[in-house]
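Cross-check.
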Amino acid sequence: MARACKLCKNITEENVCPVCKSTELSDDFSGLLVILDPKNSLLAEKLEANEPGNYALKIR
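Predicted model, tokenized:
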């Protein structure tokens, strides 16, 4: 089951976020943003995502 990190919004199936190493994960999220090139992405900049991956737009 996929879960989203409450700190960096990365979506993962692990128990610990691979991006920020947080354990604060939520099953309740909506929206999906796939970031391939964070250095050249305005959306990645707005989301403060520095790593490529899948990110949630909203976490509850």
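The chain has one domain: 3-59. The helical segments are 42-47. Passed to J.P. for a second look.
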